[in-house]
Amino acid sequence: MTQHLVLNRTGDKMPLVGFGCWKVDPQDAEDTIYNAIKAGVRLIDGAGDYGNEVEVGRGINKAINEGIVKREELFVVTKLWNTFHSKENVRPTFEKQLKDLGLSYVDLYLIHFPVPLKHVTIETAYPPGWYQPAATEIEFERAPMHELWREMEKIAESGDAKNIGISNFNVQLILDLLTYANIKPAVLQVELHPYLQQKRLVEWVQKQGLQVTAYSSFGPASFVQLTDDGKTAEPLLGHPVIKEIAEKHGKTPAQVLLRWSLERNVAVIPKSMNVERTKSNLDIFSFTLGQEELAAIAKLELGLRFNNPDSYGFELPLWS
């Protein structure tokens, strides 16, 4: 099986397995990213909102400077945060991110959420998060997506981001974007795991020529109690169905969950602070899941979304 996805327009090859930088503590980020690259990771998925781009960049450059990898062998992803959607703020924010990373270009630049929040200057707070300083409710900004996308296209045209894409978009918004885009998004990144499979979204997006990246591939990190119908959702890494499949193949539950996405031609960006687990996460090309196993996993669908702004108290039912 191929270990990469080919992106539209550029033909660039995006690794199917990468390393996600969300919730990597800045004090650990340099060593974590350096060790991940040393372990074989070639896709680094970050964002301005993660608050660790300076340190992630140091890890990347340390690996390059030591000759462990060449820059062109890495695929670096970052994302534009919600408070920088106005057309005059896009390029300056991107340039700050490039500087923070210590890179001359990134391979993929994504719109993090389709949520135009009121601007917070970089000098006031960075990363600014969801709220204005001292505010308790989110405030929106008149920053149309078509204007934002044109600025993203300019960055792609300059070559400073080889590819551009979107994250946390639904079909309706993607369909609208495609009506005016001169450069089609290369990638959609969304939450995907057996409890939230989004089958039709994935199929439709791929049919439009966009590649898909899954985040939160392991679902809940701990036991989650559902209120609907008294159902419960246990951690996927300990789910009997996943464990049984893993034992059959002599693999870990984590490897099975990652392989499940690969079977859908979807890239994954797992994170681990443990180098051996990072190596294990990369080792998912030596086996495949059978139709019966895929059918068993399909039955785990609960429509259970973990990364939901509305559940954070933001009064933003993004997926309702």
From TrEMBL:
Keyword Oxidoreductase: yes
Site feature (Lowers pKa of active site Tyr) residues: 79
GO molecular-function terms, A-Z: oxidoreductase activity
Record's keyword terms, sorted: Oxidoreductase
Sequence ranges assigned to domain NADP-dependent oxidoreductase in this UniProt record: 20-300
Pfam families (UniProt xref): Aldo_ket_red
Catalytic center residues: 50 (proton donor)
PROSITE patterns given in the database record: ALDOKETO_REDUCTASE_2, ALDOKETO_REDUCTASE_3
Binding-site residues for substrate, renumbered to this chain: 112
Protein family according to the UniProt entry: Belongs to the aldo/keto reductase family.
Protein name (record): Xylose reductase
Organism name: Phascolomyces articulosus
